[in-house]
Design brief:
Blueprint: H1 4-24, E1 33-35, E2 38-40, E3 48-53, H2 63-77, E4 81-86, H3 93-105, E5 109-112, H4 118-127, E6 132-136, E7 146-151, H5 153-170, E8 175-180, H6 185-201, E9 206-211, H7 218-230, E10 235-238, H8 244-252, E11 255-257, E12 270-272, E13 274-276, H9 279-291, E14 298-301, E15 308-310, H10 328-342, H11 348-351, E16 356-357, E17 363-365, H12 373-377, E18 397-398
Parallel strand pairs: 3-4, 3-5, 5-6, 6-7, 7-14, 8-9, 8-10, 9-18, 10-11, 11-12
Antiparallel strand pairs: 1-2, 13-15, 16-17
Helix pairs in contact: 2-9, 3-4, 5-6, 5-10, 7-8
């Protein structure tokens, strides 16, 4: 039978035990803020906080995964840094909500990884002057806290074009295909670089362009790739995010050239993949922002930074099976040109050196002349001072230009 003294002793012990359990239990996690269907991550106090907004899934095997891995690199290599991301954010009004919500959370550096994020980021940057915003592939900057960033992927598309031309000629079918996304200077520039490269190894080659108006749609990408192969293309390039073009090439017994991430080029019928390595670029920007020395503007890097590659031709990589029986002179041309690029002796302006003739027979760049950055980035109607501008298709391309 319990005495009053024993009862009080037991109650006291239970109270102490309850306090111990409460003290040792993990703190309850606050309910994440959800804005427009997107979960907005929180900052970590006392750290430099970096947020990234992705157009596709972070593990898409392409564009978004390459950026996500670059963000991971920042988290591991820049001291006292916290990184976070939001994926599958559409361009337009949804992205503006996301950028504003991240800004209100207090992130120090916000990176937007798609062309259509440009105007929303510009608006939000004007509202939060103490936060740095970096936009991928755009043309706008306020010179204060909002700028754009890109790299000369045209260098590597040019090299891939050489390989594709060589492959198509070897197979006796000098027809290429280009599955392009949106009708913007970037996509036209990269398509032109492919064709200019292909002409080096296959002067008779032509390339058909199909516009798919999406960055990431695995089903539509497969359908468009199949359409190009069925129309007669021997090698098809993609400007979109998934490895679909190589998967379809595998089914058709032809060849695909993927993009963005080395992991996209694993099947036998993938010829190669121009890809990105964003880590050192993002880390350098983060360190400058922390130091207060970063000046946003029009940052455009070339091959010597080591931030891009051509799958099968970089140190430690083995060329894909479709390279093995190509003419030795063609493969050596790719290797030699790549070596010059990595040494800083051949860049994007060399890719676009005249004479360049468009697909109507008009001379776009005269002999001895080179396009400049404004020419690579602009349509003439942008009004930003391009001379040659990127509103033309190179000789050999079959396709319609944007209105």
């Amino acid at each position: 039978m319990l005495t009053t003294k024993r009862l009080f002793t037991i109650l006291a012990a239970l109270t102490i035990l309850s306090l111990v359990i409460t003290a040792c239990a993990p703190a309850a996690t606050a309910t994440p803020e959800v804005v427009g269907g997107f979960q907005i991550p929180a900052i970590e106090e006392g750290k430099f906080n970096v947020a990234m907004v992705l157009i596709g899934p972070h593990d898409d095997g392409g564009w978004s995964q390459a950026h996500y891995e670059g963000l991971e690199y920042v988290g591991k290599n820049v001291a006292n840094t916290h990184v976070a991301y939001i994926e599958l954010v559409p361009e337009g009004a949804d992205s503006e909500q996301v950028f504003r919500s991240l800004s209100r959370k207090g992130f120090d550096l916000i990176i937007g990884t798609s062309f259509g994020y440009m105007d929303p980021m510009e608006i939000v940057a004007g509202e939060f002057p103490d936060i740095m915003y970096v936009h991928l592939t755009g043309i706008k900057s306020n010179g204060k806290n909002f700028g754009n960033l890109f790299g000369a992927m045209e260098d590597f598309k040019y090299l891939a074009g050489m390989l594709a031309g060589s492959r198509a000629k070897k197979d006796g079918n000098p027809r290429l295909g280009y599955m392009a996304t949106f009708q913007i200077p970037e996509e036209i520039r990269l398509g032109n670089a492919i064709m200019l490269g292909a002409k080096k190894t296959c002067p008779e080659c032509t390339m058909e362009v199909r516009w798919i108006n999406t960055w990431h749609d695995p089903i539509l990408e497969k359908e468009a790739a199949a359409s190009l192969f069925d129309a007669g293309a021997q090698v098809v390039f993609t400007g979109a995010d998934t490895p679909a073009v190589a998967d379809v090439a595998q089914e058709k017994g032809k060849w695909g050239v993927t993009y963005d991430h080395p992991g996209s080029c694993k099947v036998e019928r993938c010829l190669t993949a121009p890809y990105w390595l964003w880590g050192t670029i993002y880390a350098g920007i983060a360190e400058k922002v922390i130091a207060g020395t970063y000046v946003p503007g029009y940052e455009y890097f070339d091959a010597e930074t080591g931030a891009m590659g051509l799958y099968g031709f970089m140190p430690g990589e083995t060329p894909q099976p479709g390279i093995a029986d190509l003419p030795e002179a063609d493969v050596q041309l790719v290797k030699d040109t790549l070596a010059k690029m990595l040494a800083g002796q051949f860049n994007r302006f060399d890719v676009f050196t005249g004479p360049i003739v468009d697909n109507t027979g008009k001379t776009i760049v005269p002999a001895g002349e080179k396009m400049e950055q404004a020419d690579l980035d602009q349509f003439p109607e942008f009004g930003l001072g391009c001379t040659y501008c990127m509103k033309w298709f190179a000789e050999g391309i079959v396709g319609e230009l944007p209105e």
